Amino acid sequence: MNRLSPDGGGDDGNDGSESLASPLLLPQRSLINSTSQVALVGANVCPIESLDYEIAENDVFKQDWRSRGKKQMFQYLFMKWSLCFLVGLIVSLIGFFNNLAVENIAGLKFVVTSNMMLAGRFKMAFFVFSASNLVLTLFATLITAFIAPAAAGSGIPEVVGSISAVSASLVVGKAGPMVHTGACVASLLGQGGSKKYGLTWKWLRFFKNDRDRRDLVTCGSAAGIAAAFRAPVGGVLFALEEMASWWRSALLWRSFFATAVVAIVLRALIDVCLSGKCGLFGKGGLIMFDVYSASITYHLTDVPSVLLLGVMGGILGSFYNFLLEKVLRMYNYINEKGTVYKILLACLISIFTSCLLFGVPWLGSCQPCPPDALEACPTIGRSGNYKKFQCSSGHYNDLASLIFNTNDDAIRNLFSRNTDSEFHASSVLVFFLICCVLSILSYGIVAPVGLFVPVIVTGASYGRFVGMLFGGRPHSSLNHGLYAVLGAASFLGGSMRMTVSLCVILLELTNNLLLLPLIMLVLLISKTVADAFNGNIYDLIMKAKGLPYLVAHTEPYMRQLTVADVLSGPLWTFHGVEKVGTIVHVLRITKHNGFPVVDECSQDDSRVLYGLILRAHLVELLKRKDGFMSTSAESRGGGVEFSAADFAKRGSGTRDTIDDLEISAEEMEMYVDLHPFTNASPYTVVETMSLAKALVLFRQLGLRHLLVIPKITNRSPVVGILTRHDFMPEHVLGLHPLLFRSRWKRLRLQVPRTFSIF
């Protein structure tokens, strides 16, 4: 083994830092600058690393594929499609029962509260409303804090917590938790269950690499969006545009198949509910599907108001992201103090929300019921456009119809057509402000919550307000409900910065293809305007959490650097035939997940790079002990006792680490041949390659390790290893602080030029 430095890096043996590079390439002063620069940027990069998406093409893997016949290949393909079907089926059932539970729990709460208000028991109605919201919020917080603190696991805590949080009248959505739940279901199926919870199935443990499991998780996330919004095509595009950083045609087919299963199952289940067999869940279905299927016409004179919606959506969306980022940073400081503070914060937000939702409608005025109303007026119960609240018979409170309601019903009311005279502009404006404040404050609590629905309801309220100001012109059929749809699209584009997937999701929600040109226009404009101010909300949240997410584009300063400029030490290498004690020593003092294997040529004493071996494979070798040899001169062949299944990851849970192994002193003096287990064809780049070019290669191929080899041949055969942490701006700008100052100077100069196109 060649050890260039006694220093080590990383944290845990599963997903630790993997930056292995020679300390000769970087002075210690730069390492100190890196730490201070991270603090300056405001995000500490967490130790999460990518999985081993690259197939380790070692001798064991090659033998496994050579031994497979037509039957095994058919089984492999059959299991891929079967698991996609199971993912779609399970996620659709979860999505249906999620909505079923929310509609019935929240509906029962509003029915009981409304009955008390009809009887004049207003104080008791407020107590029941706020107490039920507090209990539901507390339940969701306790589940998240104690059962799934990192929002990871089987997906069950996320489902239950999401039901409780949404039913508690918090301005949160269930789309985000459904995406994560779909990913959890797919992950459990792909790896054969969970070893942590004692749920493993050998007949499902067929996929032996992270690439197949990642594809299945992508299908699960697409199915989650499809189940949340009943938008199968939008789910596929959402996974393509926002979730997956690596895509191929085969994955497109399987994700589309999974979302198609979701759409069919949901359609069948909702047909049952339409017959009145699902309690309070039935009329609305999922979200606001089919609420705007009327034919519409628009003219050139309508374009200026649509352009205004797009510009306003971009400005408001970027400002919304700015405020949300500040609130999340403040919540992080509070949550770091302990679980008690997390619970208290959630309870305070719940009480504040209940006070606003119950108190603000008293400021609204009572309006007489329209004689041509398409539904009962006033509404007695949980949903409808005409909430009675405190009004007398034959009158309704338009502000209560928006605020004292579920988020889904509020969106339906805003999107509804032929209701231009049912809501006052002041009521819609107040509702917009309340949605902005409550959605920002509610998102950071410790509970499974999403942003998609809050952004939709906030955008719909401001869109309807704009429609009240500029709508109603002659020769225009852009009514207030249509303005609400376009406002939701512009606010989504300004906050989330997605275009294609959002466009299709909104079209599937509203069931009106005639809206396509207008939605496309407002999405493009709002995204362009918002990009001039800050990043999309998901990138800002991931940056605040320190997640090492690689964006699709490269920063301009990366073209000024080579890969050698960002390498940091130390570099640890193994010989092809290595001593057991040496391997154990290195695994114990380092947390790296990949190690170059170097062979020495007996002719000229030069060294050549043989390949790359993973920590998990080394631990398995040491655990099995079948490949131990008494001397280093024994012939190769240590791989004959192993199969690819031995190195396949079991169910999720705690993996074996080097500290779990018991190796005697005699075994420490033995040797093991690493050649059969080493990936002999790892991806490599020359040290003079630009960092921008290396980033494109790293991201497009879905790599975890990228070996850096020297430009000249009379040096070590490998000079370092690149991982995703080496491409992060915090790391690069920490090593080169002058680029950090020039970057911000360039950004200040670019903002006016970017915005001047409007």
Written overview of the protein:
With 758 residues, this protein is an alpha+beta fold. It contains 25 helices and 14 strands. Strands 1-6-8-9 form a four-stranded mixed beta sheet. The longest helix has 49 residues, at 70-118.
Overall pLDDT: 79
How far apart are the first and last residues' alpha carbons, in Å? 61 Å
Strand content: 5-15%
Computed Rg: 29 Å
Number of helices: 25
Low-confidence stretches: 1-45, 747-758
Instruction: Return the structural class.
Output: alpha+beta
Q: How many strands, which pairing sense, and closed or not: the largest β-sheet?
A: 4 strands, mixed
The number of distinct β-strands equals 14
Shape: elongated
Family: Belongs to the chloride channel (TC 2.A.49) family.
Subcellular location: Membrane
Domain CBS: 677-738
Transmembrane segments: 76-97, 124-148, 216-239, 251-269, 306-323, 343-364, 429-462, 482-507, 513-533
List keywords for this structure.
758 residues; alpha+beta; three-stranded antiparallel sheet; 25 helices; 53% helix; elongated; disordered N terminus; Chloride channel protein; transport; transmembrane helix
Could you give the topology of this structure?
Layout: E1 2-3, H1 28-41, H2 59-66, H3 70-118, H4 122-147, H5 156-167, H6 175-190, E2 193-194, E3 199-200, H7 210-229, H8 232-243, H9 249-273, H10 303-335, H11 339-359, E4 366-368, E5 395-397, H12 398-403, H13 407-415, H14 425-443, H15 452-470, H16 480-496, H17 500-510, H18 516-531, H19 537-545, E6 572-575, E7 577-579, H20 580-589, E8 594-600, E9 607-614, H21 615-624, E10 628-629, H22 665-668, E11 671-673, E12 684-686, H23 691-700, E13 706-709, E14 720-722, H24 729-735, H25 737-755
Parallel strand pairs: 6-8, 12-13
Antiparallel strand pairs: 1-6, 2-3, 4-5, 7-11, 8-9, 10-11, 13-14
Helix pairs in contact: 1-24, 3-4, 3-5, 3-6, 3-7, 3-9, 4-5, 4-11, 5-6, 6-7, 7-8, 7-9, 8-9, 8-17, 10-14, 10-16, 10-18, 10-19, 11-14, 13-15, 14-15, 15-16, 16-17, 16-18, 17-18, 24-25
